[in-house]
């Protein structure tokens, strides 16, 4: 199974049901081609670099402290969830991104900074259905996974678990998101 590297605080927001949309542009190592959704199901690989309260909406800033308290050793990581892609749309329109703000934890300033990075490439808005694993998976962190890249290969099977948001709530929220994205 592949894993998507994402800020640990964002992984927490996805698992808490506070976030259902990822906004991705791609890292430094993906500058030329931009971000691509290469997999429709993937583990969430929490990362601890570049996280800052300055990039988060006020209602979620304190969660960063909780996440940092539980940061694993640099040589290991704990995977606690996986995601399934429901819908992807590329966006260059700031007004559409503004309408998505209640579905993610980044603040407007950070979203605009990411949109301005590599301006020839659009932002990918990815609607996800997230599942919290019944049994977290411990992995040894490999040196080749370092750096600003999105996807890493893992020799694990992430299955089972409970949805972060129950079916009825997810149906309602995904309908709202799809209306914004259409």
Describe this structure in words.
By secondary structure, the protein is α+β, with helices and mostly antiparallel strands. The chain has a single domain (2-181), classed as Hypothetical protein (Archaeosine Trna-guanine Transglycosylase, Chain: A, domain 4, Roll), CATH 2.30.130.30. 26% of the residues lie in helices and 31% in strands. It is built from five helices and seven strands; from the N terminus they run E-H-E-E-H-E-H-H-E-E-E-H. Strands 1, 2, 3, 4, 5, 6 and 7 form a seven-stranded mixed sheet that branches. It is globular and about 40 Å long. The mean pLDDT is 90.
**Largest sheet at a glance?**
7 strands, mixed
CATH first level = Mainly Beta
- The total count of helices amounts to 5
The count of strands amounts to: 7
Rg is 15 Å
Spans of at least 5 consecutive residues whose pLDDT stays below 50 are: none
Question: What do we call the CATH homologous superfamily?
Answer: Hypothetical protein
Mean of all residue-level pLDDT scores: 90
- Assign the structural class, choosing from mainly alpha, mainly beta, alpha/beta, alpha+beta, or little secondary structure: alpha+beta
Share in helix: 25-40%
Shape descriptor reads globular
Strand and helix order: EHEEHEHHEEEH
Could you say how many structural domains there are in total?
1
Terminal CA distance: 30 Å
Task: Spell out the blueprint of helices and strands.
Elements: E1 2-7, H1 8-16, E2 21-24, E3 41-47, H2 61-69, E4 76-91, H3 94-99, H4 108-116, E5 123-140, E6 151-153, E7 162-163, H5 167-181
Parallel strand pairs: 1-3
Antiparallel strand pairs: 1-6, 2-5, 3-4, 4-5, 5-7
